[in-house]
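can u do me a favor
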């Protein structure tokens, strides 16, 4: 009789567990307020000094039968209750095995609907603008400080199983005091992948610049937890030359161009946060060059430039420069010495070796003027 009762209780428990799994597999179940409060307490204990609040938490199971938590209207604040970021939705996947042991081990986090205000000061410092309380001034946190905070969170023991962060629907408002311009980006996305201590970050977005084409930007960043050094890459497509010139001081000479630019920029910094040499491959579309308002624009069909810039010496090596137009075909190399102060290039001087030159201004010559091995 007792054995039959035990078997019945076990069978009933199994049936209830199966029913619970089926229910969670098919729908989201809202957590009661008491359980939601306890969950947030555990999460905030992990992320301290950052504090997280949310209006609603629901639970379901993934296709792999891992617990999936959905948080709605999420806000992240610092220890002074200053809001850092607000998120419409956050979906996170946890370890089922750890959950059975009473531990919350997050493995994956997907976020949608994030507003990211970024500013660049008049001295060229880039940072994240914290959302202040009403009536207070905004506070800006430097990019390296943001990266350090992220590293601190990722090295928590509770996140040793964490692998992937995905962010969709990012709205970026970039207020650039150095160039006195504001850029707004909607629909950007970003991912962070973690393999052991190695981190890989990818982001891309489209930028409406007012021209006929929509410019796109892709950014990558690679680093190792516990190390300050990192490598970045930026790939651009159809970005106006004046925008490129305004964001990279060593490329400020591009401001004289009215043309779209595609290409890539690669660089990084060492463990002392010193910027390492930066390389750039630029393909410039058809446009015109106008150094000053009083000069006549010169039209060209296209140009290419391969260069490396060393911030330690402020020296830029032009491995190859090529210009094609109706009146001029030029292939050259050389170097430029840049004088950069507080994010602004004040002067360039250098030496250009002309490898090949063919010129026929306005088609006025029967045969183009040609020259090789010239110097400027």
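np, heres the sequence
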């Amino acid at each position: 009789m007792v054995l039959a009762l035990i078997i019945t209780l076990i069978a009933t428990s199994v049936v209830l567990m199966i029913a619970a799994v089926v229910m969670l597999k098919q729908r989201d179940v809202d957590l009661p307020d008491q359980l939601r409060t306890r969950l947030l307490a555990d999460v905030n204990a992990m992320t301290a000094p950052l504090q997280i609040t949310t209006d609603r938490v629901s639970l379901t199971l993934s296709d792999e039968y891992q617990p999936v938590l959905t948080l709605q209207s999420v806000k992240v604040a610092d220890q002074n209750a200053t809001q850092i970021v607000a998120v419409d939705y956050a979906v996170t996947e946890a370890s089922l095995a750890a959950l059975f042991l009473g531990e919350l081990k997050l493995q994956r986090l997907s976020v949608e609907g994030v507003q990211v205000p970024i500013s660049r000061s008049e001295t060229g410092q880039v940072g994240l603008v914290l959302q202040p309380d009403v009536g207070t001034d905004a506070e800006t946190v430097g990019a390296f400080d943001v990266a350090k905070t992220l590293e601190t969170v990722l090295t928590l023991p509770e996140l040793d199983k964490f692998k992937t962060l995905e962010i969709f629907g990012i709205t970026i408002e970039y207020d650039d005091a150095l160039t006195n311009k504001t850029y707004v980006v909607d629909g950007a996305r970003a991912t962070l992948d973690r393999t052991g201590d190695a981190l890989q970050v990818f982001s891309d977005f489209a930028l409406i610049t007012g021209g006929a084409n929509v410019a796109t930007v892709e950014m990558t960043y690679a680093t190792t937890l516990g190390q300050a050094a990192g490598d970045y890459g930026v790939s651009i497509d159809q970005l106006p030359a004046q925008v490129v010139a305004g964001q990279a001081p060593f490329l400020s000479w591009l401001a004289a161009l009215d043309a779209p630019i595609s290409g890539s920029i690669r660089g990084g910094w060492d463990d002392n946060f010193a910027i390492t040499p930066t390389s750039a491959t630029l393909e410039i579309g058809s446009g015109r060059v106008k150094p000053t308002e009083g000069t006549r624009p010169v039209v060209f069909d296209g140009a290419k430039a391969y260069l490396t810039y060393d911030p330690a010496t402020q020296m830029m090596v032009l491995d190859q420069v090529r210009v094609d137009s109706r009146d001029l075909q030029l292939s050259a190399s050389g170097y430029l010495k840049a004088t950069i102060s507080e994010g602004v290039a004040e002067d360039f001087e250098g030496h250009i070796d002309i490898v090949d030159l063919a010129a026929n201004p306005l088609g006025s010559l029967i045969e183009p003027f040609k020259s090789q091995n010239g110097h400027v």
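The longest strand covers residues 344-359. hope that helps!!
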